[in-house]
Automatic annotation (TrEMBL):
This is peptidylprolyl isomerase. One of its GO terms (molecular function) is peptidyl-prolyl cis-trans isomerase activity. It comes from Scopus umbretta (Hammerkop). The keyword Calcium applies. Pfam families: EF-hand_5, FKBP_C.
Length: 225
């Protein structure tokens, strides 16, 4: 699968990402063992450290995972997916809770070594497929390459919400689709616009009121909305 575009906040993908991704629940804050926390060591910090990552951002990174007990490597992103860095949305449970925490406020080019306790990793169950035993403390070495505006960012919502009423009407989204189609210049049958518009409302207008509210759109629970 091709990596997401760097302008995810603007592209059609912000509304048409696979439903499984959009429905990924943000995990509850403050895990079962509140006393346990992620330990972060910054190995390299660029002089120009901006932008810093925040919840909902789309990150591109390489990371290696080790078992703290014996130092054995259980994961290396450079040997997966033809060696391409991983793309994921921060803070929404696409990675283990410990990595969601460890990669907050991180900037492109920064490298970190982090230690994640079992309660913020795979817990008592472990992860047999990933060769991670029960109650395992994990160590990750992370190199972050890119911090992009997430697919459901506040900026993207406000761009579509022309009348600033904190909800997206069919007309507003229809206009947004027309503008996006005009930008990429590809020829499409008029029915494509209608099909996409209908699909957007089917998947996002949960209360069926004919609008996509800030809450319905904002699946990543940004504080700004």
């Amino acid at each position: 699968r091709r990596p997401p575009r760097s302008d995810m906040g603007r592209g059609l993908t912000l509304l048409l990402l696979p439903l499984a991704l959009l429905a990924a629940p943000a995990q509850a804050e403050g895990g079962t063992a509140a006393a346990e926390e992620v330990k972060i060591e910054v190995l390299h910090l660029p002089e120009a450290c901006s932008p810093k990552s925040k919840k909902g951002d789309l990150l591109n990174a390489h990371y290696d995972g080790f078992l703290a007990s014996d130092g054995s490597k259980f994961y290396c992103s450079r040997t997966q997916n033809e060696g391409h860095p991983k793309w994921f949305v921060l803070g929404v449970g696409q990675v283990i809770k410990g990595l969601d925490i460890a990669m907050m406020n991180m900037c492109p080019g920064e490298k970190r070594k982090v230690i994640i306790p079992p309660s913020l990793a795979y817990g008592q169950q472990g992860h047999a497929q990933g060769k991670i035993p029960p109650n395992a403390t994990l160590i990750f070495e992370i190199e972050l390459y890119a911090v992009n505006r997430g697919p459901r960012s506040v900026e993207a919502f406000n761009q579509i919400d022309k009348d600033s009423d904190k909800k997206l009407s069919e007309l507003e989204i229809s206009q947004y689709l027309k503008e996006e189609f005009a930008r990429d210049g590809k020829k499409r049958h008029p029915s494509v616009h209608d099909e996409i518009l209908a699909d957007i409302f089917k998947k996002n207008d949960h209360d069926g009121d004919g609008f996509i509210s800030a809450k319905e759109y904002n699946v990543y629970q940004h504080d700004e909305l």
